[in-house]
Amino acid sequence: MAKDKPVKPPKIDIGIDKDTRARIAQGLSRLLADEYTLYLKTHNFHWNVTGPMFNTLHLMFEQQYLEAATAVDLVAERIRALGFPAPGTYKQYAALSSIEEVDGVPEWREMVAQLVKGHETCVRTAREIFPLVDEAHDEPSADLLTQRMQVHEKTAWMLRSLLE
C-alpha cells in the first residue's frame, strides 16, 4: 500500500501580508485575554453574588458571561483565520490581559464596579488595535472589534446605572 504524501497547506493569501497579520493577531490575542478574564470574573460573580440585588445581578451576570463565552470563540477564530495560534491557557491570559483578577468575594456594589472597569478595559484594548486593522483594510477584524466595543460600552453603561 502506498502511503499518502502529506500535503503542504497553501500560503495564506488574503491581501494582508504576514507581518501585518501577525501584529493584528497579537492585538487580538490581548483582546482575547481581556475577554476571557472578564468572562471568568463575571461567571465568578454570578456564582457568588449576595444581597438585596441578588436575583437581578445573578440573572444579569449570567446573560453577560454567556455572551462573553460566544465572544471569546469569535476572537479566537479570527486569530486562527489570520494564520496564528490563539492563546488558550490561564498563563497566557495572565500575561496578556489588562484586567485585574479579584481576591475573595466582594460585595455586590464592588462586583458591579469591577465589571464596569473590565468592560471599559475591553473597549480600550479593542480601540488600540483598530488603527492597525483599519490601515490593513482588514474589514472582518474591524467588524469584530466594532461589535465588541458596542457590546462592552452598552454593558458598562447598564452596570454603571445600577450604582447611580
From TrEMBL:
It comes from the Bacteria. One of its GO terms (molecular function) is DNA binding. CDD domains: DPS (cd01043). InterPro entries: DPS_DNA-bd (IPR002177), DPS_DNA-bd_CS (IPR023188), Ferritin-like (IPR012347), Ferritin-like_SF (IPR009078), Ferritin_DPS_dom (IPR008331). Keywords: DNA-binding. Gene3D superfamilies: 1.20.1260.10. Residues 27-164 form the Ferritin/DPS domain. PANTHER family: DNA PROTECTION DURING STARVATION PROTEIN, GENERAL STRESS PROTEIN 20U. Belongs to the Dps family. This is Starvation-inducible DNA-binding protein. It comes from Fontimonas thermophila.
